[in-house]
């Protein structure tokens, strides 16, 4: 006999993540009752993943559970917030308990790593859709808002850019990527939210954003909100060997600049904090690269290794742009 909605909640969702003392009442009532620590503000973000838009129908459900939470934790990292609570709304075409068990395993493993508790949500029938809302705490003086960049600030990015885009390109266009395929697919399916980087550097940064739609588009959001522009040194953009090879072959920078799905951080750092930041970098588990500078003039300039400007046509991913 198929499990009911309430049996599903009890069996798969009631124990996801860790148990936190600031959850006064969690799953099982009409609302959760949650306690925000004194002196902190609540940071909230929500993302929806839709089958056929954000993931392929044959995706590994364990990796999908991980990614559904990871992309939201990435938003908290971009704000400089510490993760705390999460809600999950899951629309399923049918009940597949093997699929659910794997999905919850991926979700819960990441939640435990970042001390996150699932405190509520909903399950419904329909096309496979996953909506996750995360809640975190941040000292209001350290919140990394998009409207705080100033001319002269330095632009840093974590990790390497374009790997997830290349994996997606390989799958959609049938490109043979050889031995790096597995590593690239890992970057697409199992993104790593840079929470630790944010916690370590948030007192030095002035603004930040996670790179979900491509560096040009996401840095552009900071520039627009802050009323500034930016200059990017393309030779300083951190690239994996497969992405470097693709750029050499195609002479196009669209993967690291516009492909999206990297979920790395773009950090804006006042120049006077550069020395302190670089002292802390060796203690982190991810590469951090200085790639440009905030300017007073609007727009984003991309320069090649000679300092000459390069015209980059592609912006970033937009759900509602005509295709």
Automatic annotation (TrEMBL):
Listed binding positions for substrate are: 54, 261, 317
Q: What is its EC number?
A: 2.7.4.16
Q: Which GO terms describe its molecular function?
A: ATP binding; magnesium ion binding; thiamine-phosphate kinase activity
Q: Which CDD domains match?
A: ThiL (cd02194)
Binding site residues for Mg(2+) 5:
213
Chain positions recorded as ATP binding sites: 121-122, 146, 212
Q: Which InterPro entries match?
A: PurM-like_C_dom, PurM-like_C_sf, PurM-like_N, PurM-like_N_sf, ThiL-like
Give the record's pathway.
Answer: Cofactor biosynthesis; thiamine diphosphate biosynthesis; thiamine diphosphate from thiamine phosphate: step 1/1
Keyword Kinase annotated: yes
Tell me which HAMAP family the record gives.
TMP_kinase
Spell out the protein name for this chain: Thiamine-monophosphate kinase
Q: Which organism is it from?
A: Sedimenticola selenatireducens
